[in-house]
Amino acid sequence: MKITTNTILRLMTVAFVLVLAGVGNTYAAGSLATRTDDPALRATVQEEVKKFKGVVIKRDPDSFTMSETTGGPTTTVLLTADTEVKSHKKGVFRGSKEYAASYILRGLRLEVDGTRNSDGSIVASKVRFDEQDLRTAQALKATLDPAEAELNEKLRVQQEEQERLAGQIQETQALAQSAKEDAAKSQAAAEKAQSTADYANNRINGLGDFDPIKTITVYFKTGSSVLGPQAKQAIDDAAAWVKTQDRKGWVMAVIGYADTTGSTQRNIDLSERRANAVIYYIITKYKMPLNRLVQPFGYGQLEPVAENKTKAGRAKNRRVEIRLMVNKGIAGTVGN
Q1: Over the stretch 56-110, which tens digit does the pLDDT of each residue have?
Q2: What SS3 class is residue 313?
Q3: How far apart are the first and last CA of the chain?
Q4: Of 205, 235, 251, which closes a domain?
């Protein structure tokens, strides 16, 4: 049979189409397998996070750890060069203010936008906080940093002493039988130094860890930040009880609240004035050291304890909570 040029071209065209179809099926099958079977790609699936709120409990150079509640679960937040750090806007005419990532401190209450990785960490795109909370965190840093520095110095000295004693132990072990008693004494001294160093290290690790002891609630009249007789009596009764306790490592957080009467900004300012009034009364009457004050701030009408629709409910929300806590690091109870 005679094969013409047109026949050859038709055969080549059919073969090319069949090859393309096979390649397409293979590619499609490979793509589907990659989408469904590749664990590495499944691990990159991310979840969008909006306004995730909490308090910073640990700060690292490129990340921080935050908790939504005291003693609750923690979340690691990763910072990048594109992370935007700003304060919240206050009203129509006052915009937010940009901050460097270094302003994110332990004790700072903030909210985070970003994406959550499969390991639970959040890669932050935005970090927002109130400037009042920033000032509180800065005050906390000024209180805790000197304590940490002092403990670190003690730890360094104790570590050097431990190394010196360990060297003496090695030399003693090489001595004759008559020096065994001295070697045993040096060993005991080295173990004591190690125990002291471990204790100091535990105290450092516990400086950001608090246990609640008691909450005292003080109530206010509508629109007022003046301490009435009943409010002062509640504080005096609490102070009398505190004097009967072992107060080693105790600290105090004072948080103000308001009902929904008035504007949101007015209630924030009012709750801050209420917290300050309680602090002033305690400091002036009972001479409380300022380094015992952890986190004074005003929540405004947020976190009500009762319905604001009733008179009785609003009365319960016009309050200041005095939260007594013990710092595990200062008290030396880490691990208990």
Answers
A1: 999 999 999 999 876 789 999 999 999 999 998 876 666 789 999 999 999 999 9
A2: helix
A3: 98
A4: 205
